[in-house]
Amino acid sequence: MMETKSVLLLLLCLNVVLFLVNAAPSTCPADNLGSKCDESDDWKGEFFPGIPKIKYEGPTTKNPLAFKWYNPEEKILGKKMKDWMRFSVAFWHTFRGTGGDPFGAPTKFWPWEDGTNSLAMAKRRMRANFEFIEKLGVDLWCFHDRDIAPEGKTLEESNKNLDEVVALAKELQVSS
After folding, report:
1. Rounded distance between C-alpha atoms, residue 173 and residue 176, angstroms
2. CB 3.0–4.6 Å: which of 61, 108, 121, 133 could bond 57 by disulfide?
3. Organism's domain of life (predicted)?
4. pLDDT digits (tens, 9 = 90+) for 111-166
5. Identified catalytic residue from 144, 151, 159, 173
6. CA 93 to chain CA centroid, nearest Å
7. In Å, how far are 10, 139, 169 from 136, measured between CA atoms?
8. What is the DSSP letter of 25?
9. Separation of first and last alpha carbons in the chain
10. Which burial class, exposed, middle or buried, applies to 91 when counting CB atoms under 10 A from its CB (0-12, 13-18, 19+)?
11. In the prediction, which pLDDT does 67 show?
């Protein structure tokens, strides 16, 4: 009886794993043949299509993509709520990490990812970052180490990659 339960448990676990693997949204193929992720850093279309700018709608809203309690313009003790609560998006955790933890598999898959750590991919991620923070209404973002740009084969190439991504980030910051 114990052996039967072990086999059934194993089969159940295998089914869950297969479901998770098959349920993962498709990403840009590494060979980029015929995909909307080509060698350029231009993603064709929105990164978060169908997601409007998130707005305050009050505590009675049924909209899951609305703020119920956070009203950035509401004044509290003479200061706007957005000045008291200065939210930011952490680039690594939002756009570089997989959402996994030491005990589990990745939980998020970005459709624009092509599986590379190329300069074009770094620029695509940066564009996605700025669309995301604009839709959230967040003014700040942060990164650590060199997670915004790929390493090159030499220090000079690594620095050049970082300079290119930083220039794009500056351009996107000014326009948003």
Report:
1. 5
2. 61
3. Eukaryota
4. 888 888 899 999 999 999 999 999 999 989 998 878 899 999 999 999 999 999 99
5. 144
6. 8
7. 42, 9, 17
8. P
9. 64
10. buried
11. 94
